[in-house]
Amino acid sequence: MAEERLSTRTLLSSAKSQKPWLKKAAEFPILEKQNWLIHMHYIRKDYESCKAVINEQLQETEGLCEYAIYVQALIFRLEGNIQESLELFQRCAILRPQCADNLKQVARSLFLLGKHKAASEVYNKAAKLDQKDWEVCHNLGICYIYMKQFNKAQDQLHQALQLNRHVLTYIMLGKIHVLAGDLDKAIKVYKTALEFSPENTELLTTLGLLYLQLGIHKKAFEHLGNALTYDPTNYKAILAAGSMMQTHGDFDVALTKYRVVACAVPESPPLWNNIGMCFFGKKKYVAAISCLKRANYLAPFNWKILYNLGLVHLTMQQYASAFHFLSAAITFQPKMGELYMLLAVALTNLEDAENAKRAYAEAVRLDKCSPLVNLNYAILLYMQGERGAALAQCQEMEEKVRLLRDNSSLEFDSEMVEMAQKLGAALQVRETLVWTKQVEDPKSKHQTLSTSKAASFQQSLGSNQALGQAMSSAATHRKLPSELRTQATISFPGPRAHYGSMSH
Q1: Average pLDDT, the chain
Q2: How far is 396 from 378, CA to CA, in rounded Å?
Q3: DSSP character for 433?
Q4: Ramachandran quadrant class, 446 (left: phi over 0; alpha: psi -120 to 50; beta: rest)
Q5: Based on the number of CB atoms within 10 Å of its own CB, is 115 exposed (0-12), middle (13-18) or buried (19 or more)?
Q6: Handedness of CA 25, 27, 32, 33 (dihedral sign)
Q7: Does the global pTM surpass 0.70?
Q8: Which of 87, 224, 295, 406 has the fewest beta carbons under 10 Å from its own?
Q9: How many CB atoms sit inside 10 A of residue 364's CB?
Q10: 471: number of CA atoms within 13 Å, CB side?
Q11: Closest listed residue to residue 499, CA positions, set 153, 257, 193
C-alpha cells in the first residue's frame, strides 16, 4: 500500500514538471522594466510622479536607462530648463549615437538656446542617419534663416516639401521671400499653400497682409474676410481689417474692431499703437499719447511707435518731447529720411537752426523721392536768409515732382502745393508747369505725397513683428518772414499703423 502511494506521488510530480505553464516567467531586463510607468505618467502630464519614477529607475540602473533620461530631458525643457535638457539629451546621444531622434533633440535644445550654427551642425549629422526625415530638413532650414543663409534655407525647405507637404514649411518659405523683399514670390508660395490647405486662417491672414502692403486693397479685404469667416476671433485679421478702416478715416468703426482684439490680446503693442492713432485722427491728442505710451511700454524698441509719439508731440507743439522720441526712433531706423526731417522740424521750433540744417541735409541724402524734405529744408533756409541754398532745394524739389508725375497719376496735397507756390513767389522763381495744376477740391481727402511714397518704399512686413503701414497727413504751422505775408506750412508725413504681424 505504501509502495503504491509512493509511485502515485512520483507520477504526479513528474507530470507537474512536464507542464510548461508551471515554469517561472522570464524577467524583463532591468533597464527597461519601469518604462511603461514612466510613459504613463508623462502622457498624463503627472510630471512630479514621472520624475520620482525616473529617479528610482536611474538609481537602479546607475544612470544607464536611456528612456528615463530622454523623458526627464523632455520634462526639463517643458519647465524651461533648456541647458539641463541639452545635457541630458547629449547623454542619450552618447548611449545610442546612431539614433537620429536623440540628435534631433540635441539640436532642438541648441536652437532654443540661440546656438543656431551648432544646431545646424547636429541637424546635418541627423540627416546623414535619416535622409528622408521631413522634420530634420524643415528645422535645418529654419536654422539657416536665423543665420541669414537664405539660399541654403530655401533648399532645405524645398527638400522638406518634397518629403512631406506641411503648411508650416510653406509659411517659413514665404517668410524667406518677404525678408528678401520679393513679395510677389512670397504671395505665390502662400497661394500654393492655400491650394493644399484652403481653410488655414494663418495663410489667409498672411496673404491679406501682403496684399495690403502692396496696396491691393480688394484682394487684401477678400482674404482677410475669408480668414474671419473660418475664425471670427482671429485677432490678426481683425487688427488688419481695422487698420484698413483706419486708413480710410473710419476711426469709430476701427475702434469697434480693436475692442474685439483687446479681449484676445490686451497686451499687444500694434493694437495700442493703432488705437492711439485712431484718437490722433479724431484729434484727441491726450488719449492718443496715453495709448501710444502703453504701446511703447510693451515694445520699447519699435521705431514706428516712437515715430508716432514724435508726430503727436509735434502736433501738440511739445517739441522737446518730440525730439526725444524721434531721436530714439532714428536709433532703431537710421536709414529713414522722414525721421530726420521730423527731427529737423522739432529742432527748428527749438531754435537750434544749425542742428536742424544738419538733420535736413541727412534727410535729403537718404530720401531721394519725397519733395517734402526739400520743401521743408527750403523753408528753413529761406528763414535763415540763405536764398541761394533755398533756391537749390526748390529746384531739386521740382525735379522730384516731375519724376513722380511722369511715373504715376499722383495728386499732391493741396496744402503742399500752395506752400510751394508761395515759397517760389518769395524766391522770385518763374512759375513752372509742375505747380500750375491746381487741386479742384481742397476739402477732399487727397492722398499725400508721403502716403504714396511710404506705401511703395517703406515696407517692413517680414521682421520679428512684420508690419504694414497706414498714412495720413499732418502739419505744423510757423510764420515766415513778411515777404510771404501769410502763414506757411512745414509739412511732414503721417503716422504709422500696424496691420498685423507675422511671427517666426
Answers
A1: 79
A2: 10
A3: G
A4: beta
A5: middle
A6: positive
A7: no
A8: 406
A9: 19
A10: 24
A11: 257
